[in-house]
Each structure stands twice: as structure tokens, then as C-alpha cells.
Specification:
The chain is about 60% helix and about 0% strand. By secondary structure, the protein is an all-alpha fold. The protein starts with 11 loop residues before the first helix and ends with a helix. The protein binds fe (ii) ion (2 copies).
């Protein structure tokens, strides 16, 4: 695959500003056509996609369940339209085209969805921040404890496989798995599903609490809410992607339920009393997520998960990350890891800010993918410099546009 790039990730947030105008223009252009073409496209396309879905796919994606829903008297409102997650601003750029009728353009997302170039995916590194304050240390120790408990639960060991074993032909995979030195594809998936079902909680809790605080105090939030909600959405997409590959057992569902019940409340209370510690905790948790996904990627590249060799990327992942149609599962996991590096970077940076006064430096423009992949985060001073630079750039661009239009 040569490139995953469709656009640069910088300035992506400012493009959102154009959305309502573009959408309005498009709706005026095609007042009826959009709704009707979206329905017919969606149902037929979904059926053809489902033919290729494995039987073990998540319950909601199984074709018989879908068919039952479609023929049911109690129709799901809006469930049949293309892009039920809402229009994506990229779809609206060429106004002359009816993007909803064009089958080559897929998926549509209301919230910002990350898109990476091939080289950006390679920049992600396993990095960690040394804890400084008591809160930092408490957050790091809690993460280390949770990681250990989780490793025991999922029979995970980070054992490097010696080069001499990797050179053997064939590699004795069954033997290594029996010794517990290698995770099977089932065990990787079990781990991912548990991990991701927890990971979607912090952004939503943080976003909710800051939303309520803004209304309670009748004050601006400073751009934190949307970044946090985008993080929650991004983690949910990771979960939905992995759910297309496995039907979770009753045991997994029970674990997800129990973990969510406990974790949501624990994180809620932590965020209420010390949002700094809560963001530091997420930063540390994401350091571990990058470590785990890097391990999985290395195993895949070394041919240690043969069941996943050349497995095509799930459809939902192609839509969300805008991957090429021939993308593989490996590309998806590399994109997931890049997302985790972003969460690591953003949360550590937010943890360094004054939670009550400071603006979110990434509210208008994200740091570039390389910075997010290689650095654990920005210090408070770096955040201030970054925000200032980006504001100046946007103002300069706006001035240039104004001059050009006169
Ligand atoms: Fe994730
Ligand atoms: Fe994450």
C-alpha cells in the first residue's frame, strides 16, 4: 500500500467551521435527491458488504439480525441512510457531486475522524513520562497495577522471541503458544475488546463534567469538551472495529459490564476531585496501549499471528480511517496505535495545564502526527507557544484570503 493519505491532519479542525455552510448549500442543491438516493444505496450496499462478513461478526452486523430489523414493523428511525453517523465535511467539498449517490465514497462521520499517511503511522514510538508529583505517581502506580492484573487475566506475557527462533522455518508457533510465550489471535482480540471497552469511558466522563461545569459557572470551557468527546468516539470506533472480528462470549460481556460499572464511577469521582490526576492516568494508560499494540504489530510483521496474514481491513475501519479499499488488518492496527499515541500526547499535555483557566491548545489545530507519535506530550509552556503559533497562522491565512477576495 503506497499511501493512506487523503489530507493533512493539520488544520483539520478549522475546516469544521465550513461545514454548516457547505451542508446548507448542498441541501439546497439537492433538496429531495439526497434522502431518496441514500436509502436505496445504503440497503443494497450493506447487503453486499455483509456477504463477506465472517459468521462470527458482532451480533449487530450479522445479516439475519439486520434482515429481521429491516422487515420488522418497528423500523429504526434513520437507520437505513448512508452515513448514519452524520455527514463528513470531506464528502461535501466537491459541491457539484451528489456524494451520497456515489458508491465509491463511503462512510460519513459527524465528529473528526483521524486520517494518517503511511509515514505518519511509522513515526509512533513507545515513550513514557517520568511521574513528578504525588498525583502523577498515584496515577502511574494505578496503571501499572491494572496492567499487571489485566495481563494475568488475558494470559499476556511480553516475552521477546529470540532471532534464532524467528529464523526457523516454519516458526514453531503452536509450541510457543503452548508455552505461553505467544498470544493466539483469539487472545489478542479478547484483550483488545476488554481494553477498548474501558478506553471509551474517560473522554466521555471528562467531556460531561466540563460541559456541566461550563453551564454551572456560566463560563466558556476553552475548547476542551470536543477534544474529549472525540477521544471517546475514537475509542468506541476501535471497539466496533474489533467487534466485527469476534462474537464476544457471555463471559466477555459480563467482564465488560462489570469493568464499565466500576471504572465509570471510579473515573468520574477522580475527575471530579482531581482532573489533573485523571488526565495523567489516561496518559499513562495510553502509554501502555501503545506498548501493547506495538507488540501486536511486531508479532504480525514477524508472521507470529498467521491467522491474520493478509486479512482484509473490516469495512467500518476503511470508512472511519479512510483506508484504501485493499487495506489489511495490519494497517488498521497501525492506525489504532497512532490514535492511542494521540490520546497519550493529548492527555499528558492537558494534565500539565491549569484545569480551571487554561484553554485547550488543540481546540483549533492538532499537533502534527509525528509530534503526537514521538513525544509523550507538551509542557505547559510548549502548549502556550503552540496555541499562540497556531492562532497566528490561522489569522494570517484568514488575512491572505481576505486580501485575495478583494
Ligand atoms: Fe483504543
Ligand atoms: Fe486509547
Amino acid at each position: 500500500m503506497s499511501t493512506l493519505a487523503i489530507r493533512s491532519t493539520t488544520l483539520m479542525r478549522s475546516t469544521h467551521l465550513c461545514r454548516p455552510i457547505l451542508l446548507q448549500a448542498q441541501l439546497l442543491h439537492h433538496p429531495i435527491g439526497i434522502a431518496s438516493s441514500s436509502r436505496s444505496f445504503s440497503v443494497s450496499a450493506r447487503r453486499s458488504i455483509q456477504k463477506d462478513e465472517p459468521r462470527q461478526a458482532s451480533l449487530a452486523l450479522q445479516s439475519d439480525v439486520r434482515e429481521k430489523e429491516e422487515h420488522s414493523k418497528n423500523k429504526i428511525v434513520g437507520g437505513e441512510g448512508k452515513g448514519v453517523e452524520g455527514p463528513h465535511y470531506q464528502d461535501q467539498v466537491p459541491l457539484a457531486t451528489d456524494t451520497l449517490a456515489d458508491e465509491s465514497i463511503t462512510g460519513a462521520w459527524t465528529m473528526m475522524n483521524p486520517i494518517y499517511t503511511e509515514s505518519e503511522l511509522d513515526t509512533v514510538k513507545v515513550v513514557g513520562r517520568t511521574p513528578v508529583t504525588i498525583g502523577d505517581k498515584a496515577a502511574h502506580r494505578t496503571v501499572k497495577f491494572l496492567r499487571k492484573a489485566f495481563d494475568v487475566l488475558t494470559a499476556y506475557k511480553a516475552v521477546p522471541i529470540p532471532q534464532s527462533v524467528l529464523k526457523q522455518n516454519p516458526i514453531p508457533i503452536a509450541e510457543l503458544r503452548a508455552k505461553g510465550q505467544l498470544l493466539s489471535h483469539h487472545k489478542w482480540l479478547f484483550r483488545f475488546i476488554l481494553l477498548e471497552s474501558i478506553a471509551g469511558v474517560p473522554g466521555m466522563v471528562g467531556g460531561t463534567l466540563r460541559h456541566l461545569r461550563s453551564m454551572r459557572l456560566l463560563r466558556r470551557d476553552g475548547g476542551w469538551i470536543h477534544t474529549l468527546l472525540e477521544e471517546a468516539e475514537n475509542e468506541r470506533m476501535h471497539l466496533l472495529t474489533f467487534m466485527t472480528m469476534a462474537q464476544p462470549t457471555v463471559f466477555t460481556r459480563a467482564l465488560v459490564l462489570a469493568a464499565q460499572g466500576v471504572f465509570y464511577n471510579a473515573f468520574f469521582l477522580t475527575y471530579l476531585f482531581s482532573p489533573k490526576t485523571a488526565h495523567r492516568f489516561v496518559g499513562a494508560l495510553e502509554e501502555e496501549a501503545v506498548r501493547t499494540y506495538t507488540h501486536c504489530i511486531e508479532d504480525m510483521e514477524n508472521g507470529l499471528i498467521p491467522e491474520w496474514n493478509d486479512v482484509p481491513a473490516p469495512r467500518i475501519a476503511i470508512d472511519y480511517w479512510r483506508l484504501p479499499t485493499d487495506a489489511k488488518l495490519l494497517d488498521v492496527i497501525r492506525a489504532v496505535r497512532a490514535d492511542e499515541a494521540t490520546h497519550r500526547f493529548v492527555n499528558h499535555s492537558l494534565a500539565n495545564l491549569d484545569q480551571k483557566k487554561d484553554f485547550n491548545p488543540f481546540a483549533l489545530v492538532e499537533a502534527n502526527a509525528q509530534t503526537r507519535g514521538e513525544k509523550w506530550g507538551f509542557t505547559r509552556q510548549e502548549s502556550a507557544d503552540f496555541a499562540k503559533q497556531q492562532q497566528q497562522k490561522l489569522m494570517e491565512a484568514s488575512k491572505q484570503k481576505h486580501i485575495a477576495s478583494h
